[in-house]
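EI: anyone free to look at a 248-residue chain?
SC: sure, send it
EI:
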Amino acid sequence: MSFSIEEDERVAFDRRVRGSVNMIEIERIQEWVEVMGTTLTPEILVRENQGEKDNRIVIFLIPGNPGNDGFYTDFGRRLIRNLIAREDRLGHRRVQFLFYTISHLNHVLLPTELRCSESHKVNERFSLLEQVQHKLDFVKEYLPRGNRVYMFGHGAGAYMLLSILPYIKDDFNLRKAIGSLDESLLFHKNLVYFYYGVNDGWCPIEHGEAMSQKLTRGHVVIDKDNVEHSFVFRDAATMAEKVLQFIV
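SC: here you go
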């Protein structure tokens, strides 16, 4: 299993002089772990909420097909920079943004040490139920219980997110769960938001229009900029602006 973390690393400079939020270094960490096994460094992966001093805003994204977390690196970095810029404009207290993504089982190349081990098989296939369980295990075992937590699902990842939502809602200060696929798993409707593209071949706009009748006003957003379903390739910058409305 591969997962990556994007973290804002604020360098020491005076923005009044040097000016641009694009100068902020965004650090990326990629780790290979067994879901019930090893842990990351304490400063990154402290699971427990730290009470009033916990300034972490955690954003967790489950990708769509082909299930490679690396495709979301540019989007994650842009999103964090946008969030930092917004915090600066509003004069809010300093917060730490963490952006987590996780690959689907056997959808990315295993590192050499795992390819050669007896416990991991590169040709092993996993069912949808096993992929969903994998995401649930990861969230319960590793995802920090930050000050605020926002969860996103893209395409098939939206199905997985909605599938695990009933089992994790009470473990986190979960503010919103945002998806991009038509689903009937509408538990906890107050938390669920959907974003639909007008020209999305994977999810016809009629699904979005039908969903808008099932949820409270504002919980279904229809894209107006012709963003493609596979937004990570050409529309990462646009989507990094669009999703700001969900992170408050």
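EI: Residues 9-20, 33-40 have pLDDT under 50 and may be disordered.
SC: 👍
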